[in-house]
Amino acid sequence: MDKPLRTPPPYPIASVDHALRAAAILQMEGGTTVAGLAERLGVARSTAHRVLAMLVYRDFAVQDEDRLYRAGPVLELAAYSQSLVSRLRAAALPRLERVVALLDETTNLIVRTGDTVRFVASVECRQALRVGSREGMVFPAHRTTAGMLLLADLSEEELEQVFPARRGGRPGDGQPDPVRLREDLRRLRRNGFAVNRERSERGLVAVGVLVRDHDGTALAGLSVSLPSVRYDPRDLEHVVQVLRAEARTLERDLLPRG
Known about the structure:
The protein is built from eight helices and nine strands. By secondary structure, it is an alpha+beta fold. A six-stranded antiparallel β-sheet has the order 6-5-4-9-8-7, sandwiched between helices. A three-stranded antiparallel β-sheet has the order 1-3-2. α2 packs across α3 and α4 (73-103) crosses α8 (236-253). Mean pLDDT is 85; it is low at 1-6.
């Protein structure tokens, strides 16, 4: 029997349809302007502008210096391999819960896409004063613990593609100083772990380690986040040991079966 033709829902929501079509255009065609999207959707420019503004707000789109809208971190994550992210998250949740049970601090699993990272899993601790779940959120990679570790695992050629060393950054453009960044990454390679003291958020400290694939490729970062008032450097060795033990267990859980 032939598959029936797809029929529209009985109560379509035009604004949702416009946003979904715009997201598909950004993902499959590279980019668009407000005028270009308005023409494609058959709507006024003001409507297209509102659609794009909402996509930017939710990280489905970004706007470059030429005012061209492109696919944002959420859409780029799809290219990362949804099956891998789904498998990572499912395998990591028991490990995150174990870290929370041992350290009583919020724990996260993070993957990198370009110069940003996304929190794909987060388990909160039970303390009254705690760092809330970051699941689904996107941050600049160079401002997070796991992001710095994942950047440190790149070759110089790969890092150059993400953060060109000769790029003329401007104050306040949100990009890291390339010389300082490379110095920090060299230190992280030696340590094998990272400590973030209020680099991403005021009042927050995070400690992280890498999770690797069976061939040594860095897949993700495993981290704990805690209020800075509760951080004691004397506990750092213990925190790193717990994270490394759970990261190794997660790596074994991810090994191909059979």
